[in-house]
Write a structure and sequence with these properties.
965 residues
């Protein structure tokens, strides 16, 4: 609860400082009626006094009355979502006002900021940009505004959990998306050590979101760091503009078919309060609280990614295929990967045979918590020093549970992120500084949990001995090979902790609260039964400033900016360590904080030509991280507007991405395979970069050894291993020291509005060239029998690569490093929206993404992980009857290949339908929305080993007494 203290202190202060303004002017009553351009009454229109804090709203018939102490003349401002704001001057007492509001032009009047970091018409944006405004958010059938991003042109969402979704654009998608930036009111929401924005877990509530802008593709020329694949910019409501009380309550149900879990309730509650206070209406504050609780989606797909035909299985024995595969590595089972491989050598059919067998492992459904929570609280205090200068302080807190996939699955349990922000904003500049505080709470990693559960039933050697004896007994009794394997597993697993029992729960609880993933069963000095806790804590410090030079420079519109960031990681001894310590002491908790820093700055100039029809924008950004050489990020873009409604654009930019904190400095022991960052200082004394063999080649090498021994009676594995044609199968890693990724991005596009602004067209095409792509490769450093490193290529190193020597003579690492190949991706999107008869609207988008094939295989799979085709179609009417609207969205994507360190395989094609009907009750200032996502409960997954997503059906009530100023 101490994490919430800043929020409650601020809330208490705001309540104490709230006081009514004293006014001496006479009370004036103004009444009237508001209608749209089709002469229909408009309920819920905000009528406020310009420059003041008083106001009211129109009722169900569009009528309003405002009684306040005022002085003639004054101006009334009429505001409504989806309509142009209108100002009406009241010079004297008069009869009822009759006011008409025009529907907003669909595209012509839309203003965006993210594309150039200055306000500009979306029609003339130099790069592709998408926007969800308040009206679009209210009309979406998705369960939340964040879910609605999946329907935005060019966006691919990855759902890891009910509480955790991550967007991506233009390929190379991963659940922990290092390459996509997410800002909330200018604050980067990335959780530093987890290395990913936690969806919207610490972002705005449903009541406080004002707009979402998404820039597909590289945005690093202006935003730097991790915006190489695009960015989302979430903007919340200002308390000066949106004042009053709002309350939101949603009740939903998922798992309606009972397939994975019993039908379960979901509840989400939120409240927002904002007010302007103090003399001169210069102080304002807002407070937001929200709480979500539900039953999570379950990942339970048992695709085997180590089939019988693989060299790491048993390719010479077709009877051991499918369900009979003793070396199966299933998507959503843990402890059955390469770390759990046991080589079983027995006499079989007249010769010695070596079989690959995996430990039994545990299914994800038995390791994760089904109930997830998300608590969000934020408050901010704003002060207008002048009419054009605003100072604000904001505090944001988020707590979440869920499941998230990095190199392995992680159960997030009580993860908290706090944010303090101080900002000064003027008419032509912004300066802000903020701090993020991350704590992973009681989270744990599923893979070491499963491995250590199995190790309590014996080390791999002990378990393998029981398996070998039982297998020989079964085969000697005439049992078939497949049946003998099953019987041998049952014998070897005797005494194993069984899910659902008290013994299993007690053992699991002990492991998930131990922060050392080694087990004393096979690592001397490590705890028994070993651990799986994910205890990561960090602080992120960031400062930035942006200045629009405006009229100070005559030849062009120029903006400049600079920023600096410092990550401070608190070593836990298991995920992040103090690299200043000797190697044998690094895994002890504590030590000096580890720092990772960067600074950067940019300048951008925009010039208009040919009677302002051509807009040319050039920018240059310089970023520096002390671990690397400085990097330049240039961008050049041109937009040509013909006949005011046709815009053609083209752009080029070069972008760099520094490795994330986890890619750079991690030191994680995971199933006796240490996952390490790629910086040179991490490699010192370990030598995995230049004195190692790749795991893929070791698997091929051992398969060849086993085949040779089986075919040549009397030959030992050591003798076979040293044969020239077999030892040559081992590939030396020779990994480069980690360097930043680079992208060269080319884009062209066209936007237009036609037929009296009823039809909008938005198309773009891109071509990206990636260099130095970052990924993971697993390698082994060879040792002799005494545990000392030996040089790759030597006889000792070759013998160390045998499976029988894996535990004693190999130090295994999964290393972040750069790809050797360049990767060329390309694609295009087309979006159309048409408004027609009586507020009906139909729209859709088609998205194409592809990756060019390379002639040579790389040292790791890069994982484009993107469907070639994805399509969305939307049909709706915001008022098909009086105060009644509806919206339907159909979405489809094609099958595609998913590649990652955890799971590989094809993700099947799927299609879904979302729908909602909303009813406004103006007299109660309430909207009732009834809807569902995936209303036909078409079960699907979005990535390999990801959760199966079904239908979610909901009823949401929003009470909105907000007054717009």
């Amino acid at each position: 609860m101490r994490q919430l203290y800043p929020f409650f202190w601020l809330f208490s202060f705001l309540l104490l400082t709230t006081r009514a303004a004293v006014a001496q002017d006479p009370i004036i009553a103004v009444s009237g009626n508001v209608r749209d351009n089709t002469h229909q009454a408009l309920p819920g229109v905000t009528i406020s006094v310009k420059g003041g804090s008083v106001g009211t709203q129109s009722d169900a018939d569009g009528n309003f009355i405002l009684k306040e102490r005022l002085r003639f003349p004054f101006t009334l401002v009429f505001s409504a979502i989806g309509y142009d704001t209108r100002e009406v001057e009241v010079a004297r007492a008069s009869s009822r006002l009759q006011v008409s509001l025009e529907s907003k032009n669909m595209l012509m009047n839309e203003v965006v900021v993210s594309a150039s970091r200055v306000e500009e018409s979306r029609l003339r944006s130099p790069v592709a940009i998408e926007k969800l405004d308040i009206r679009a958010i209210k009309e979406t059938p998705a369960p939340s505004f964040y879910d609605a991003l999946e329907n935005v042109k060019g966006v691919q969402m990855t759902t890891s959990s009910l509480t955790f979704k991550v967007p991506n654009t233009r390929g190379f998608n991963i659940p922990n998306n290092f390459r996509f930036m997410q800002l909330v009111d200018g604050v980067d929401m990335q959780a530093a050590t987890l290395g990913v924005p936690l969806g919207n877990a610490i972002g705005p509530t449903e009541l406080d979101i004002a707009s979402v802008e998404i820039t597909p593709g590289a945005a690093s020329a202006l935003y730097g760091m991790n915006a190489i694949n695009g960015m989302a910019n979430l903007t919340t409501k200002s308390p000066f503009t949106y004042q009053g009380l709002s309350v939101y309550q949603k009740l939903g149900v998922n798992h309606v078919d009972g397939t994975d879990r019993d039908p379960s309730m979901l509840t989400e509650s939120a409240v927002r309060w904002a007010q302007v206070v103090g003399p001169g209406q210069r102080w304002a504050y807002k407070v937001n609280l929200s709480y979500l609780r539900g039953t999570d989606w379950l990942a339970n797909t048992q695709t085997d990614q180590n089939p019988q035909t693989a060299s790491s299985a048993n390719p010479r024995f077709p009877e051991l295929s499918g369900a009979n595969n003793p070396a199966a590595d299933l998507w959503n089972r843990y402890g059955d990967d390469n770390a759990g491989n046991v080589s079983i050598t027995i006499p079989y059919q007249g010769r010695n045979e070596t079989f690959n067998v995996r430990r039994t492992g545990y299914y994800e459904r038995d390791l994760v918590n089904p109930i997830v929570r998300n608590i969000k609280a934020d408050a901010s205090l704003h002060y207008k020093l002048t009419d054009k200068l605003e100072l604000s302080y904001g505090y944001r807190f988020g707590l979440m549970d869920g499941v998230f996939q990095r190199g392995n699955k992680i159960q997030l349990d009580g993860v908290t992120v706090q944010n303090h922000k101080l900002e000064l904003r003027g008419q032509d500049f912004t300066a802000r500084a903020y701090m993020l505080i991350e704590n992973t709470g009681d989270s744990y990693n599923l893979n070491p949990l499963a491995l250590n559960l199995d190790l309590q039933n014996g080390s791999n050697a002990v378990w393998g001995g029981r398996f070998r004896t039982a297998l020989q007994d079964q085969l000697g009794a005439g049992t078939s090979l497949a049946d003998a394997m099953r019987q041998a597993r049952a014998v070897a697993d005797a005494g194993r902790a069984v899910p659902g029992t008290a013994a299993f729960n007690d053992l699991k609880n002990q492991i998930v609260h131990t922060n050392n993933w080694d087990s004393g069963v096979n690592v001397p000095g490590a705890p028994i039964p070993g651990g799986a806790a994910l205890m990561q804590r960090s602080h992120t410090y960031h400062a930035e400033g942006i200045w629009n030079l405006g009229q100070r420079i005559k030849f062009a519109d120029v903006i400049v900016g600079a920023d600096a960031r410092v990550y401070a990681v608190i070593p836990d001894g298991n995920n992040f360590v103090d690299f200043g310590r000797p190697i044998n002491e690094r895994t002890q908790p504590g030590g000096d904080n580890q720092y990772y820093k960067k600074v950067g700055g940019f300048a951008q100039a925009t010039k208009l030509f040919f009677a302002e029809r051509l807009k040319v924008t050039g920018s240059l950004r310089l970023d520096y991280n002390p671990e690397f050489n400085p990097k330049l990020n240039p961008r050049i873009a041109a937009v040509y507007t013909a006949a005011e409604k046709h815009s053609f654009r083209a752009s080029y930019q070069n972008g760099w991405r520094f490795p994330s904190l986890f890619e750079a400095l991690s030191f994680v022991n995971n199933g006796n395979v240490r996952r390490v960052g790629g910086l040179a200082r991490v490699n010192e004394g370990l030598n995995y970069l230049d004195n190692s063999y790749t795991l893929a080649s070791i698997s091929t090498f051992n398969a060849a050894v086993n085949a040779y021994v089986a075919a040549n009676a009397g030959t030992t594995a050591s003798q076979a291993a040293l044969r020239p044609e077999i030892r040559s199968l081992l590939t030396v890693g020779n990994l480069p020291t980690e360097q930043p990724e680079q992208i060269n991005a080319y884009e062209v596009g066209y936007r237009s509005v036609l037929f009296d602004n009823r039809l909008s067209i938005d198309a773009d095409a891109y071509y990206n060239i990636y260099s130095g792509f970052l990924g993971q490769v697993e390698v082994s450093v060879p040792k002799d029998a005494s545990g000392n490193q030996v040089q790759v290529g030597s006889d000792n190193a070759v013998l160390a690569a045998l499976n029988s020597n894996r535990a004693a003579r190999q130090d295994r690492y999964r290393v972040y490093t750069n790809a050797r190949n360049k990767y060329n991706s390309y694609g295009s999107t087309l979006g159309l929206t048409y408004n027609f008869y009586q507020k009906f609207s139909i729209g859709g988008n088609v998205n194409f993404n592809n990756l060019s094939a390379n002639d040579e295989a790389d040292i790791f799979v890069t994982g484009f992980n993107t469907p070639k085709w994805a399509t969305n179609v939307t049909f709706g009417n915001r008022e098909i009857a009086r105060n009644v609207g509806f919206n339907v969205v159909w979405r489809r994507q094609t099958s595609f290949l998913w590649e990652s360190p955890l799971a590989n395989g094809r993700v099947p094609a799927y299609q879904t339908v979302d729908a909602q009907v909303n009813v406004r009750v103006p007299n109660l200032k309430t909207t009732i929305k009834v809807g569902g996502a995936n209303i036909f409960n078409n079960r699907y997954i979005q990535y390999a080993a990801g959760p199966t997503i079904g239908g979610l059906y909901y009823v949401a009530l929003t009470f909105d007494n907000t007054v717009l100023r």
